[in-house]
Specification:
Blueprint: H1 20-24, E1 29-35, H2 40-55, E2 60-65, H3 71-75, E3 83-88, E4 91-97, H4 102-109
Parallel strand pairs: 1-2
Antiparallel strand pairs: 1-3, 3-4
Helix pairs in contact: 2-4
Length: 112
């Protein structure tokens, strides 16, 4: 379910989110981004996220369309959008909620 095309900045929220088990099986570093295409906070954060992830194009970026009844977001206890979760070998290493600046996203990625 997680594709090589999700390396670097992934512009679209995917309806077909990976399962929690698939995420836990990831090796290496990745960013899960929970949100929705119509979310104003997600749209405002997009340029900062895009700038940082385009500069780190080896980083897997999985955008997950979140909302009521979406299992993966509940597993990670996502309450606000966007929420970026930094993963190292499938385990949460850090998270950033509602970023507004490039510096905030850079700080998250610097934790790799």
């Amino acid at each position: 379910m997680i594709k090589a095309s999700q390396l670097g900045f992934n512009p679209n929220y995917g309806e077909d989110a990976p399962t929690f088990e698939q995420v836990q099986e990831l090796t290496g570093d990745a960013i899960l981004e929970f949100g929705a295409p119509w979310c104003g906070h997600c749209q405002a954060a997009r340029p900062a996220v895009q700038e940082v992830l385009e500069a780190n194009d080896e980083l897997l970026h999985v955008k997950v369309y979140d909302g009521k009844g979406k299992v993966l977001g509940r597993k990670y206890q996502v309450k606000l959008w966007p929420t970026l979760i930094l993963l190292r070998n499938g385990q949460e290493a850090d998270r950033l909620v509602r970023p507004v600046s490039v510096d905030q996203v850079k700080k998250l990625v610097a934790n790799l």
